[in-house]
């Protein structure tokens, strides 16, 4: 039996066991795909609210016109309001593994979204976004890793002001649980250092987590004139904190090529730090390029936001960037030539190089290699 099928059977077994032994069980079970539903009105809260008798006790006049709470599941729902308030439920799985998590919710207060923290067994797993909805609907909570037996799934208010109805769990798809990276790089001419680094990443995949830290943009030696061959010295708050608390440095250092484009002369020695991190500290450097472009044709001001995201924005079109004869194409080719030249300086370093082009300007490109 494949592992995904074993997990499905285990979920069903755990649900049936809860019914026969404790008399409590999720509101609904789908035998077809192993989905189990847990109602938040049966859970717990710290500072939030639990409504276990439908909408009784909810003052609808406190919410925007059009808020409709009639479509809840089970006997009721829960609510988080102020930052830090929580709602949680305990779930039971008979086998450890990866599970697909979804939430039933209603978010009538913000016309865009609300964001809450997701905690599993007291450990933060990141954030869950709840898009605007004046009535109950479902959204994804992502793929989570659960231990065998009881697990506590908690939503902790970050932006708050969201009704949480239920959650569902089902075994993650086999395409996720059976991931296995290919051992071949896409570039047949990859350097030996790139091949060694990729082989190391493959060896650790699924077994260990490699610690990493993103650095601040800007120079990291405020007195470069006095020690021109040292580029990692100052502006190191995060790395100093990690070293102080653990006695070690992270293996991966994240470095941003934000300062490198043909629209500006500012440079902050990011490539030099990548070389120093790999050659002197024997770490792995990951390079990201938050690419600034002119706000419009002929403009000396640069940005990487679209108009809806920031008052300082660019009209740069990524579609035009791949069309010869456009100013966007001229700009991208000039900047790529600049970045390629600086990348050559990193030849021989163990660098995983991620190039993110204008991430907030309607497109992106990621390259991996040395």
Task: Please give a structural write-up.
The protein is of the alpha+beta class and about 375 residues long. The protein has two domains: about 5-175, Galactose-binding domain-like (Jelly Rolls), CATH 2.60.120.260; about 180-355, TIM Barrel (Alpha-Beta Barrel), CATH 3.20.20.80. It is about 20% helix and about 30% strand. The strands form four sheets. Strands 1, 2, 4, 5, 7, 10 and 12 form a seven-stranded antiparallel β-sheet that branches. The longest helix has 19 residues, at about 5-20. It is globular.
Key phrases:
single chain; disordered C terminus; TIM Barrel; alpha+beta; 370 residues; Jelly Rolls; 7-stranded antiparallel β-sheet
Gist of the model:
This protein is of the alpha+beta class and 370 residues long.
């Amino acid at each position: 039996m494949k592992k995904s099928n074993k997990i499905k059977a285990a979920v069903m077994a755990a649900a049936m066991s809860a019914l026969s032994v404790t008399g409590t069980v999720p509101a609904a079970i789908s035998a077809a795909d192993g989905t189990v539903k847990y109602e938040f009105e049966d859970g717990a809260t710290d500072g939030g609210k639990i409504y276990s008798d439908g909408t009784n006790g909810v003052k609808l006049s406190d919410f925007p016109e059009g808020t409709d709470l009639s479509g809840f599941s089970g006997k009721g729902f829960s609510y988080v309001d102020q930052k830090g308030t929580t709602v949680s439920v305990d779930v039971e799985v008979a086998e450890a593994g990866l599970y697909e998590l979804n939430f039933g919710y209603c978010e009538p207060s913000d016309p865009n979204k609300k964001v809450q923290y997701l905690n599993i067994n007291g450990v933060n797993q990141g954030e869950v976004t709840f898009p605007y909805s004046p009535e109950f609907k479902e959204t994804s909570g992502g793929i989570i890793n659960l231990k065998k037996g009881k697990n506590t799934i908690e939503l902790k208010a970050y932006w708050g002001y969201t009704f949480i109805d239920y959650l569902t769990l089902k075994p993650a798809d086999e395409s996720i649980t059976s991931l296995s990276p290919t051992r071949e790089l896409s570039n047949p001419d990859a350097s030996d250092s790139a091949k060694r680094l990729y082989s190391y990443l493959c060896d650790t995949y699924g077994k260990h987590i490699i610690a990493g830290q993103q650095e601040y943009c800007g120079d990291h030696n405020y007195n470069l004139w006095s020690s021109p061959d040292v580029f990692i010295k100052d502006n190191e708050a995060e790395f100093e904190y990690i070293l102080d608390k653990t006695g070690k440095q992270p293996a991966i250092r994240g470095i941003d090529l934000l300062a490198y484009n043909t629209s500006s002369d500012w440079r902050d020695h990011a490539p030099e730090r990548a070389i120093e991190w790999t050659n002197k500290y024997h770490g792995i450097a990951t390079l990201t390029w938050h690419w600034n472009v002119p706000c419009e044709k002929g403009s000396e001001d640069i940005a990487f936001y679209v108009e809806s995201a920031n008052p300082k924005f660019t009209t740069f079109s990524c579609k035009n960037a791949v069309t010869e004869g456009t100013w966007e194409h001229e700009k991208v080719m000039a900047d790529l030539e600049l970045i390629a030249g600086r990348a050559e300086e990193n030849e021989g370093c163990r660098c995983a190089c991620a190039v993110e082009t204008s991430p907030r300007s309607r497109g992106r490109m990621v390259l991996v290699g040395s």
